[in-house]
């Protein structure tokens, strides 16, 4: 099948002319297949389009019977065309009818054709259809012919992407590119958001596909590759953390891919076939993505992110654009879709226009999740392939409670979620009415409800929710969102603002909880086999006392004349707490000697999250003014589960007997020693779990602002004495790792307690 004079470049130019002609969608597609057949000296050229229901439909043909158009259909995986769609790989056969996947469609009249060449129509790795040429003779297609048809397929795929063919598809299905997509991820921040997609790192939309000067395009490609290689080399040499926090290992992987000769050769070949440099990058990466999405090896699938990032950097170099979206042009009802994000990036967006957040990465305890909850933005993480399944401006729904994402939802689904959002708003109004109602149980037990915070934007929630104060202020967030280490005066200014916003309500400041997964962008990362069990939090503070002293001094200065509560995280032994107390005493003495006013009342406490403290409860409760349970880490360490690992994160229930017995032990020792005990972990903000905590004896809970209303509503309907008797009886009889969740849920249901 030799190409006609002029080859693929002439074909691409002719296709560009056809794309610009003022004709209808069907006429345009008919002219395209006729032109491809003529250029490639083929008796048949056909385009099959993937519909929204996953069925391939013949949309146009030159050579097969015209009456088969929009009549012939097949499922993905059915026949040769279906095989190409399912594998996203080209298929060249000298005798198609001898292939085991051949499926005869009598209405097409294709039985007289033997040679077959088909390639997928790909865009961003998604299969939109299949392009086929056929010949009567038995012949072998060359690699150059396969390459030429793949290049042509990219142009046809872009036509599909414009949506022009949508009108030719059945109304009930549409074409695959625009079909509704449901994705299940992990709930990060509660709420329902309806809006339109904004890609955090917008893809370059390649509009100029066809090269005018191949030599010039090759030169542009080589220059862009050299620039990307140089930028990666510089990042590695400087030891900086790259965009989105990739560390050295990731950058080394980038460097390896940037020098991969197979990748570079395929892009050069695509340019030689007639594509522009950016179209060549897009085509090769779309092929890579299609193949790697079908891999079962998790390592290979993860390499897809590396290739995507590298291709994205290369495309932005070629078109001279920044990697990050312009924040100032955010549309109304924006829902950000990203592979991953740092908390600082989210804070750059206009909060008044944000309606939701969708991430391919990031779990419930990630920093971005904490910030999303603080801002009240519905968020879902670990959504597979989110950035490639969406286009800017697509309608999208985020259900932060269920961890669900609906992309391009049909009207019924959109209406259902709109109603869900309205119901949620009405519930929030009901909770708002409880703002000034004392948080006292049905039988008169008072429970203090406070909020968790970490940013100035969190603080108005104190008054909005009627919270008693801030039970956990995460001071590390200020460090995480800054481009450099905050100075002592900057820290003091933040803490002074927190006190001013809180008014007469108490605030508990947690000292820097960095290390582990909380790497500051301007600090040298320490390689550790298991960062969660390594050098972090109070361990860094005691080993680098200058950092801790500066923070303590800023807190003491900011609290001048006011009560101050300081809490130390990740304490594993009483000795660590005593050493931290000594640092505070030295700073108090220093400030007093220099005439600085001190807090009128200073209380020092520990965050109980390391299981070793469970066996030092008597001593720590006598030494500390208060303890606060960080149930996220305590649960993780108690059951040896990585809370970011989806395979094990949900294997154990916080309402299981072992966990509840540990919590009961803490409550009893604290009460005996007159040491205040509070819970600031995630379970304090879930009504059923909060009910159990109150039943165990905890009288202070700290939670996300959105959880105050539901937890207070639960408390108002709870008889704590009855609940306490139930839990004690159940724990006495529970065996092994049995969970009390069903029994507690039954208690709530029979007593009319909203959980």
TrEMBL record:
User: Which GO MF terms does the UniProt record name?
Assistant: kinase activity; metal ion binding; phosphoenolpyruvate-protein phosphotransferase activity
Q: Which domain of life is it from?
A: Bacteria
Q: Which UniProt keywords apply?
A: Coiled coil, Cytoplasm, Kinase, Magnesium, Metal-binding, Phosphotransferase system, Sugar transport, Transferase, Transport
Q: Where is the GAF domain?
A: 24-170
Q: Name one GO biological process term.
A: phosphoenolpyruvate-dependent sugar phosphotransferase system
| Catalytic reaction annotation | L-histidyl-[protein] + phosphoenolpyruvate = N(pros)-phospho-L-histidyl-[protein] + pyruvate
The Enzyme Commission number assigned here is: 2.7.3.9
Signal sequence annotation: none
What name appears for this protein in its UniProt entry? phosphoenolpyruvate--protein phosphotransferase
Question: Lineage in the entry?
Answer: Bacteria, Pseudomonadati, Pseudomonadota, Alphaproteobacteria, Hyphomicrobiales
